[in-house]
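User: Can you write out an input/output pair for a complex, sequences first and structure second?

Assistant: Here is one pair. Inputs:
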Amino acid sequence: MNHLGFDIEKLKIGSFDFTCCEGCQLQLASRESTLPAFLALLDIRNFREISSERSDDYDIALVEGSITRQDEVERLKTIRSQAKVLVAYGSCACFGGVNALRNKFPQEETIRTVYIGKEIDTMPAAHKISDFVTVDYSIPGCPVFKEEVERIVVSIATRSPIPLPKYPVCVECKQRLNTCLFDLGEVCLGPLARAGCDAVCPSGKTPCLGCRGPADGINYDSFLQLVQDKGLSADEMREKLAFYNGFEDYLNHEG
Amino acid sequence: MKVDFNIDIHHLPRVEGHGDIRISVSDGRLAEAKWAVVETPRFFEMMVKGISAERMPFLTSRICGICSISHTLASIRSLERAMQITPPETARIIRLLAMHGETLQSHALHLFFLAAPDFMGTPSVVPLLHTHPEVVEAGLLLKELGNELSITTCGRATHPVSLVLGGVSKAPSKQRLAEIKQMIADRKPMLDRATEFFMTLPVPEFVRETEFISLRDGESYPFIGGNLVSTDGVVRDENDYLLMTNEYTVDFSTSKFTKVSRESSAAGALARFNNNYDQLYPQAKEAAAAFGLQPVCHNPFMNNVAQLVECHHIIASAEAIIDQLLDEDLTEISADYNPQAGAATGAVEAPRGVLYHHMETDETGKVVKGDCIIPTTQNNANIHYDLRALAEQSLAEGKGEKEVEKLCEMLVRSYDPCISCSVH
């Protein structure tokens, strides 16, 4: 690959999935119009979902999914030891994602409800991957936004890392000239959640559920006040804040 | 010649999720053939407890990264039937268009990215970018068309945003619909190119008589709701989904197995084709004829061809729906409702076959119980018994270890399994 007149080595990359829907990996194969150019940047060494080639020689590991079984911890640690850069991508890898909704139930009851008499090997809770290994980059989202993944992968390839947006979804939503969902009587997490998704949910007239976790320096207390002042349901607000587990610290702090 | 070998494919590549193929041959005879799903469970049936009906489709969408629109619509249908909500006609056809996009995207992904490399002898689609660029181009343009259809109708191709209880939260703009109509017209030749390419690929000769399960409404090719039917003559009401699945657990798989009239049954494109051939658009019937595909076909490898036939149907149906939407004012897109207690099944035809969500709500509209039965779950037993029959047939034909291994991998892939979905 040639960038601004410099030859750049292809990135040796692996993509790995743990407990999840694999929708984030699938995004790597979307945006078909830029796909050949994107693939030209990469030397795919290990990507089970699309290729039967498997190698342990890769520089960047993209890791998707939450961790729910001990053998996954071991596999994750092996990947960490082989990769120079480990990227958590998707809400499951970054926060535990929707999988964490089961964490509030006792494990025995959970297994009994789904598998009746069968023995199942699982941890009591679904974990984010940073509970077990050091994460170099996080790309949140459910699913991840391919344009952002492309930008970040290109930035790693060109040795010029870029940060995630610091501001909340509200900023992007306003840029798209949407009617504020609070004015339509909905609790929307747009004021709290990290931007970078182009406000896709509120643009479709459905409230933000915070799949990208908290933005930098959010005013959580002011948000609680806003929901109260608008006469909206606190239960609904908590259901949304808990949805992807990205606001765990705030919900726990609140007690 | 007497042979001994063990095939142990750990985490079969180019399928969604984690499954193992284990085959053991001793003294020239098949000792064991297993389809073992080793995926980690997520326990969605527990996660749904206490979640509001309004939010439920956004949660169950996350069961699957490939067929999230189907899961969303299965939950919506189940909850709308449970709470007596009737969505407006415009919303119904917008949803159908969203589903067409998903099916096209999913079939293109499977045919070009997952299945084609088997036939071409490459580890992935990447080498085909150089050797068969016109084929890969056709695959990418069709997959993108599927995604664009979904993005236009529900905001996103994976995990839709505007499919909601009561209808849709936002209608597509007429301008966007007109653009999509043009895009379909421009890309139709890609479908013919794809058909010509797949006609050159040899389909393995293998037949194991199977009971095929799908939806059927007798008026159109099935996508959302209908009776549950089988090629063995079973006809049941949508709410009787448990009698059409009879789930059971086996010790070597974290995904359950199912059966109806025989030891196993199959769902998916071939099952839909076998039960609903009469409802296909003429273009799709022509494509089937070109491959010599007729109902009832019992060769599981022909599921690939059935998917391609469905792509022809979807393109024709999508054009008709867009014309209808362009003639409407698109203002009545959702019905108001009050939460209530109830229970019902929502059945839809996901790309990989019939998908059931059964939800029970309390009077506040919170879900108290949920059950999801996935197409791949309904195919596990059939894959398992097919593997045995295929391995036996291959040994009788004198095939060696490498050939048996390749055929078995191809067999599993032809079902287009969605394993993480089946262990939801």
